[in-house]
Design brief:
180 residues; alpha+beta; five-stranded antiparallel β-sheet; 4 helices; 5 strands
């Protein structure tokens, strides 16, 4: 009797594991539908958060510094929350893209962390973006920019609003072929 019972348990365990594997495959298939730029950001944020968590907990316990453990958990928790939030935003399609050819950049060598990028979209429409100087763009090349749909205008002052809403820019990718 115990042999049959053990076989049933093994069968249930195997079915449960297959179900878990299937769920993980479905989740990764959905995740792979993310644009490459956003998938890259999600993976980097997620791995960095997990790295901070593991190193912080290991070091904190080893040195018996509970403050270090607390702040490592808090910091990695915030990173994991931001990663999950970005995944949710992308899955729900709550982001928008702007495609265009960079016509001119202004303020690249001025003080401050933002500079203006003037792009020409399809149909000749010109748009000016205020982006962080960390991002490098070449005049004449076409790019696709990813933004959050939930941008908030706080003051009406362009530079101030851009500085306060930096988390709404998700990234960019260079376009090889662009019809604009």
């Amino acid at each position: 009797k115990s042999g049959r019972y053990g076989d049933r348990l093994k069968k249930k365990k195997k079915e449960k594991m297959e179900e878990v594997v299937e769920r993980i495959q479905r989740w990764t298939d959905q995740s792979l539908k993310l644009p490459d730029v956003l998938l890259d950001r999600v993976l980097k944020q997620g791995f960095l958060s997990i790295f901070i968590l593991t190193i912080g907990i290991f070091t904190g316990f080893r040195m018996q510094t509970w403050n270090f453990v607390f702040w490592s958990v808090a910091l990695s928790g915030f990173g994991i929350w931001k990663t999950a939030r970005l995944i949710r935003i992308v899955r729900k399609g709550q982001y928008e893209t702007v495609e265009g050819r960079v016509m001119k950049t202004e303020g690249k060598y001025r003080m401050g962390r933002l500079y203006r990028i003037q792009i020409q979209q399809e149909g000749g429409k010109e748009t000016t973006l205020l982006l962080d100087k960390v991002n490098r763009f070449q005049v004449g090349k076409a790019y696709r920019f990813y933004f959050s749909k939930s941008r908030q205008v706080l003051s009406g002052i362009g530079r101030l609003d851009a500085a306060l809403n930096m988390d709404t820019f998700y990234g960019f990718e260079e376009l090889e072929e662009w019809d604009g």
